[in-house]
């Protein structure tokens, strides 16, 4: 089954005007979507954010993670760039789902880091897959190369595996007292490319 654009509509936001694009044909049956600004068809070197759903951060502004601020910053940068896309993947909680993420939060409240908390509830550390991101880029006719807003080397490696030339563009959000340990764990144990001054 080939991923295709099923529908799209205008989506004005506080960060600028986007089109929200719905797709069909995903093998996993999920409703992944894209926010597209400007003309990206047949373009190369397009600024792209591959963003995994985070209900707590994206919607409720949780300070436990940096997901919401990363999404907002990506939207701002794409608008400033003049064109680009946010690929929004329905992979809540690094793929374990919202209820399991809340269960992991309970262990984090007791002092576990984000990696050990997932293990404690019998889940994998990171179950996300990025093949759908490559499918979405192809459906949007983004060709060959992207500038990827990410700190996660797995996203870079995955898009490269699917034939894209990737230039990583850091998207670093200053830590707060609630997420500093979480961000340090992502850097130390998950390989995210983050630098801390203290």
- How many alpha or pi helices? 7
Top CATH class of one domain: Alpha Beta
Tertiary shape? globular
What does the average pLDDT come to?
92
Instruction: Give the CATH H-level superfamily of one domain.
Output: GTP cyclohydrolase II
* CATH architecture label of one domain: 3-Layer(aba) Sandwich
Helix content: 25-40%
Tell me the total number of β-strands.
7
The run of helices and strands is EEEEHHEHHHEHEH
Task: Describe what this molecule looks like in 3D.
The chain is an alpha/beta fold and 198 residues long. The chain has a domain at 4-91 and 129-175: Rossmann fold, CATH 3.40.50.10990. Helices cover 34% and strands 24% of the residues. The chain has a seven-stranded mixed beta sheet, with helices on both faces.
Give a summary of the structure in a few sentences:
The chain is α/β, with parallel strands linked by helices and 198 residues long. Helix content is 34%, strand content 24%. The protein has a domain at 4-91 and 129-175: GTP cyclohydrolase II (Rossmann fold).
List keywords for this structure.
Rossmann fold; 7-stranded mixed beta sheet; 7 helices; 198 residues; alpha/beta
What is the topological layout?
Layout (H helix, E strand, L loop, with lengths): L3 E10 L2 E9 L8 E5 L8 E7 L2 H5 L7 H15 L2 E6 L8 H12 L4 H7 L10 H9 L5 E5 L3 H9 L3 E5 L10 H11 L8
Parallel strand pairs: 4-5, 4-6, 6-7
Antiparallel strand pairs: 1-2, 2-3, 3-5
Helix pairs in contact: 3-4
